[in-house]
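Backbones bend. Shown next:

***
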Amino acid sequence: MAGGKSAGGKRAGYKLATYRTSEGPRAGVLIGDDVFDAAKLTGKAAYATVAGILADWKAADGAFKKAAAGAAKSRAKRLPLAKAKLMAPLQPPTIFCAGANYADHAAAMARKMGMPEPADPHQQGLKPWHFIKAAGTITSPGAAIKAADYSKELDWEIELAAIIGRPCKDVPVEKALNYVAGYTVSNDLSARDRGRRPGIEPTSFFKMDWSKHKSFDGSCPIGPWITPASDIDDPQDLDLKLWVNGELKQDSNTSKMLFSLAEQIAQLSINMTLHPGDIILTGTPAGTGAESGEFLKAGDVVKVWIEGIGEFSNKIA
């Protein structure tokens, strides 16, 4: 899993992780099947955290690529990946989540609601739209997510997550991907039954409660690491899958996004600065529980995987 290939078939040089050590959480550089302490490997004290690395992304990326090329001969202390306790790769300043951004998911939801299949939003003159998930919702790969008592309609949503690597504002679409440091896997867990305010008429403009729907503890597991953007040939051509208790639920490709990642970054950056470490969750494909009426319960195990990036699982408690 560590030495996975990019979408174009190249062997990735390194991946960026956060792992537990006797000194507390530390940023790690995964090279092959070994984890190196990022700060000790490069001699840069600021690289002890992924936030520190992203604040100096251009230089850090070059330093890690150089280290990866010489890893076989390096005398730097290394930890086998199998023994490393991986955490969420970063704690972002802000999490932006794309709403209704896959054609197959939009079509499936329309069928469930007895509505006609939605038209291409570009033809309607529409732009990408996002909501914000609280940064404190981030949790680690492998962690137990205590949400079964919180929601009886707990839903899964695999999403490609992009990490911003340098400040960007008013960025045009054609340059937007230049601001992405890397990619990770995310599961935008949703409490469907908490998104409707009790006692409010269904027709009211004020019926939705997005904070209770999307921002509860553990509702944004990410991981297992960050794959550098340079190792992914095309973020709009990646397979992604999600399983619940070993049963495949979501099986799609990022080419089915209605609005590309570049379009999303351009729209988000209008008169607003995106900062290093900000995460953009790019939407989920068909196969969610909202479409079938099946939801997560205590004891369920959810596994997510994205081509060229990695996989991880979480158990619902």
Notes: Residues 33 and 151 are 38 Å apart (CA to CA). Helices lie at 38-42, 50-54, 57-69, 103-112, 210-214, 261-268, 289-292. The two ends are 26 Å apart (CA to CA).
